[in-house]
Design brief:
85 residues, 82% helix, rod-shaped
């Protein structure tokens, strides 16, 4: 019984730590969009290339945040460690 409580507690802490990983993609995406706007302001004729490249980069950055969210959900609701006890 005590082992299950420890596993659940550690899983909750792990899920919280995984959600901290959501800060990185947010900062990275904001920086990428800001630099894209800056480059478009300097060279408006390159708008299409800059925007396309920005969207690819933002999608890559967002995927890391989604992975962290999925890990947190798995730890909270479909905990694979409970079955090992």
């Amino acid at each position: 019984m005590m082992e299950k409580a420890i596993v659940l507690g550690c899983s909750a802490v792990g899920a919280g730590l995984a959600m901290i990983a959501g800060i990185g993609p947010g900062i990275g995406e904001g920086y990428a969009v800001g630099k894209t706007i800056e480059s478009i302001a300097r060279q408006p004729e390159a708008k299409g290339d800059c925007t396309r490249t920005m969207f690819i980069g933002v999608a890559m950055a967002e995927s890391t945040g989604i992975y962290a969210f999925v890990v947190a959900l798995i730890l909270m609701f479909a905990n694979p460690f409970i079955g090992k006890l």
